[in-house]
Amino acid sequence: MEKLATEISYVHPEINHIVSCFGGDFEKGTASELHPDDVHDALDRAIPHLLLAQAFFPLLKDHKSSSFIFITGMLGERCSIPNMAALSIANAAAYGIIRSIEAEYADEPQRIIELRIAALVRRDNQAGHPFIKEGRAYPASLIGDEVVAVATGSQNREIVRVMADYLATKEVESATEKISLDE
Predict the structure, then answer these.
(1) Can you state the angle between helices 85-104 and 36-56, rounded to 10 degrees?
(2) d(CA 92, CA 100)
(3) Fewest C-beta in 10 Å: which of 25, 32, 75, 110?
């Protein structure tokens, strides 16, 4: 990560926005079924947030309009899918990393925002979520829209929750826009 940051700094010595999105879905079983190695694997999924912040935060433009956005999932707050206990652990670990980074840079002007997603997300070209068949999955582009809104917004040291019902309304708006553009 440090090498990548160094290479990027030659071309872009100051970066306006950084988005950290690591993890993804993985099913290891319920908490009572987890092996200690599964817990270590879960914690390893949170570490890239830390490594990216260590390497790239120093490259963020020293201005209140700059932002470091961490994308996480809601399962660290409430494990609503028992078979995804390891993902819940990974998200809770990411929360701790983000709170630590916020504390370290509390006196800096750059904005630190956590975008916490409370919905299943799928690739735009997929009809549904590839692993979890129950429940509605929303296109990743809707999350991208939220990242842009947060990057250009005024939030700072906040958790911005993106809820499924909110994404449902955005998906309808997006479909309406597409229809009106085609006519």
Answers:
(1) 30
(2) 13
(3) 32
The CA dihedral of 35, 37, 39, 45, to the nearest 10 degrees, is -150
C-alpha radius of gyration, the chain, whole number: 18
Task: Report the distance separating Cα 166 and Cα 163, nearest Å.
Answer: 5
Distance separating alpha carbons of residues 151 and 111, to the nearest angstrom: 9
- Identify the three-state secondary structure at position 130: coil
Q: What DSSP string describes 83-124?
A: TBHHHHHHHHHHHHHHHHHHHHTTTSSSEEEEEEEESEEE-T
Contacts within 8 Å (CB) and 24+ apart, 95-104: 96/46, 97/46, 97/47, 97/49, 97/50, 97/53, 98/49, 98/70, 98/72, 101/50, 101/53, 101/57, 101/68, 102/157
Three-state DSSP state, 64: coil
